[in-house]
Amino acid sequence: MKKLSKLHSRTAWRFISPTLIVLAAVVAFPLLFSFVVSFFRYTFITPKFDVFAGFDNYLFSFKDQYFWNSFKVTLIFVALVVPLEFLVGYGIALLLSRDIKFKTVFYFILTMPMVMSPVAVGLIWKMLLHPDLGIVNYLLQKMGFGYVNWFGDPRWALLAIVLIDIWQQVSFMILILLAGLTSLSKEPFESAKIDGAGPLQTLLYITTPMMLPVITVALLMRVIIAFKTYDLVYIITSGGPGVSTDIISYYIYRTTFMGLDLSQASAISFLLFVLTMAIVVVLFHQITKEKRR
Amino acid sequence: MTNAASRKIADLGTYLVLIAFSLAILLPILWTFRVSMLPEVEAYTIPPKLFSGFGFENYRALLVDMNFLFFLKNSLIISFLATLVSVPLSTMGGFAFARYGVGGNLLKFAVLGTQMLPGIILVLPIFVVFNSLRLTDSFLGLTIAYMTFNIPFLVWMLIGFFEGIPRELEEAAALDGLSPMKAFFKIIVPVATPGILAAAVLSFIFCWNEFLFALILSGGETTTVPVRLAAMKTKQGILIARLSAGVILAISPMVVISPFVKKYLISGLTLGSVK
Amino acid sequence: MKRSTKSAAVARVALLALAALSLALAGCAKGGGSKKATELNLLMEDVPETHIIAKLLPEFEKATGIKVNFEIVQYGDMHSKLITQFMSAQSKYDVIEVDNYWAGEFPAANWLYPLTDYLKKDKFDTSVYVPQMLDMVGYYPVNAPKRALYMLPMYNYTMALIYRTDLLNDAGLQKKYKEKFNAELKVPETLEDYVRICSFMQQNTKVAGSAMQAGRGDPVVMEWTNYLFGLGGEYYDENWASRINDERSLKAVQLYRDNLVHGAPKGAASYNLDDSLRVMSAGDAFSMITYNWMLAQLEDPAKSKVVGKVAIAPMPGAQSLAGGWGWGIAKNTPYKDDAWRFIKWVESFDVAKRRALDGGAPTRSDVLRDADVLAKYPYYALVEQILTKSKPVPEFQFSAQMVESVGRELSLIMAENKDPKTALDLAASDLAELAKKAGLSK
């Protein structure tokens, strides 16, 4: 480990202070407020700190079968979208970094879904996947595949949400990973070519290890955002059919604005926070362990 | 097989895959465009009569009746302002973390941790504070809020990019007598430009699409595109054709940004490397 | 050196924020007198009624000098946005558009200012309103002897049955129906009749029987409640004991499910209002249980392909689901007097009549029976009947949560085949919890 000289350490703090000040000023108070609220009975009907609840709000969640269902649905959702979006995104970014024509056109098209508001994306896909009047089912039936009850069948609904999310978010992966690929220095590739390395070897032993920092960030960001997803569920399925798409963020939304129970919602949010942080830290260490080898 | 032949096959494969994915992305968007040109009653007609009733009525209703340009302007201003401030701050912050490990892993994860709570929980306290500081329904308020949400992600993103830049560059700069600040601005930043640009684009997009805080913190003067588009989902039915027109209009900034981004991100130039 | 200045800065900011918050929350306590307004702000939903009123606003401005601003958001988001305003020292929105789901929540949480004094002072006659409308979005608590009026009804979306006249009057179908069931094919009077007609239509024509909306949440609850009320069932009894799992509810569930399986489009389990309306407007369903003014939409060539082929009838059975919006005054607005001025104006007979003529959905008998209005919309006589035969879901602090619980269980029954008794029992215990939490039951 390099020892920081005094000069450098001062620079470092100067560089990070503006960021820390902004974050502290805006987010610190709400975070603290929410944390404190989770230990009382603070609702929109009685917005007071009169009744201390200790860990009751947290324990209540554990006794609620629908909380566990949301937990399960969320894990499945994240476990599906993040790896799939990464693999597809990485593949496309690699292809786009090759020496081919029409890059601008491909890039333009592939990054369009990112600029579409998630609410609008939800409504449009709801239209496309309308079971009886949507174009997708119409084409599927014409091609002989039969009718898919996209949002009415519990077995399909979560998958539909996953697919729509991938459709929209893969461009995010492409953006970051392509930027990473472009900023890699050329030398290692030139030496590899001279040494006669094939494309697969280059990919595995040169490109990917060099891309590890960027890949790590892309995955971590995607995991965090995936845990907070609720727009698509809010717009399209409202957690249904049944409870098959009742993702945890939507559960929290309902607790807040229908249950009017900010305390309960805060407690669940902090449980989510702990889970997300745990996964992020573990993921981070797993990947950087590879790097340190 | 000769090298040239296998090159050709690899290129062909590349084009096929890229075309396939581009179609997968493009077709729904083209369909959205089609719906935007139809009268509301034809939007769901099955079997679809592809171009029947094509007209600009929905765009007219959006731009003239609903004054849609006003919302586009608001979204543009806020996204632009927030990005303008977030990117420099994040770049410096990311560098401090990447190079100096300032605050160790704890501070790094604490910064990221601020984003692990769903917005729904933070919205009320933030609203109450902003409201008493008269920051609601103001561009300043939304800009500050958006900065706060973008910076942790951008910082981490740029950490990734900075870690990929060889330290030899700064060591060379130090040998040349440059102070760390100067080395940063003159040597590091140019090399990290693809990453910084990607961060800027990402920041812009986060702001452009953000819904919850725009809904709660904005008012009549600062309503953004996502909020206005969502309002087309009424209890009486969704004006899908008009919404589609709104979506097509809302993609327009991408048209403007893309050529600019292309220059730095995909022309294949590496801006600077170890000599 | 750097560290201490940094932490001092952070501390200062934190103190400022805390001070701001305490100020804000403290300000919630006092309402204060009324100031003179130059502008009034309202949060509205993007529906035709809003635009109809918007067109008339310049007249209000001319008469009073007050400019009225409409801010338009989506239904679900209105609730969130209003709550944040109510929790602040001063609400930005002066006149509040209140949906009947919130008509219990808002007064119970003390967010609305009662209209009693204003009504007395201006001798505003509330008897012109259909009484069921006032119960739906007016009085709180609805059934208590001591109740106050917090809102005036704005427009209604009470539900009824809309059906295809061409199919019902088709000679061939009538013959077939008579042969099969030994009964006339006519507008159904009981729910069992309705379900039977729907499956008949689905089997003997190319269209679905009923464009149902069984999507989780609002859609399924709104539609199913018509079945429940049609059988004389209810959510709670007078003592706020939950009745959602008694025999009438179970029967309503069974009938609803029958219809969903045999009389509705295949995708109906996920439909919301928009989805089913699309099916109905495309001519792909025989009937739809929906808002009474959907008839006007279905008669609009710009939106429907079944123009001239639809009619409206009261929901078969005892009662249908009442719904609607009302005008209220935010407790924490400084412009209460002027807020009342707006409400008085927009609910004056003259303005209410013009709104109705322009396509609005009236809530008052005087407008519904007006000769000009009836000339333009002859079926409004029927609508008044429908309004009197309706009742809303129970309105209290947790109506929204109640709808959510019932909606979740109904969706589980319909889409995941959960046992109805188990599901309704769970809903009933949720509802009992909510009534207890609201202090309405022991």
How would you describe the shape of chain B? flat
Please give the CATH architecture of chain B. Answer: Orthogonal Bundle
CATH topology (fold) name of chain A: MetI-like fold
The helicity of chain B comes to over 70%
How would you describe what is shown here?
The complex is a heterotrimer of chains A (293), B (275) and C (442). Chain A has helices at 6-37, 56-63, 65-96, 103-110, 118-128, 135-142, 154-182, 187-194, 199-227, 231-237, 248-257, 262-292. Chain A is mainly alpha-helical and 293 residues long. Chain A is globular and about 75 Å long. The relative contact order of chain A is 0.13. Chain B has 275 residues and is mainly alpha-helical. Chain B has one domain: Orthogonal Bundle (MetI-like fold), CATH 1.10.3720.10. Chain B has 13 helices and two strands; from the N terminus they run H-H-H-H-H-H-H-H-H-H-H-E-E-H-H. Chain B has a two-stranded antiparallel sheet with strand order 1-2. The model of chain C is unreliable at 1-5 and 22-31 (pLDDT under 50). The chains are: A mainly alpha (293), B mainly alpha (275), C alpha/beta (442). Chains in contact: A-B, A-C, B-C.
Brief descriptors of the model:
heterotrimer; B: 275 residues; MetI-like fold; 2 strands; disordered C terminus; C: alpha/beta; 5-stranded mixed beta sheet; 4-stranded mixed beta sheet; 13 strands; globular
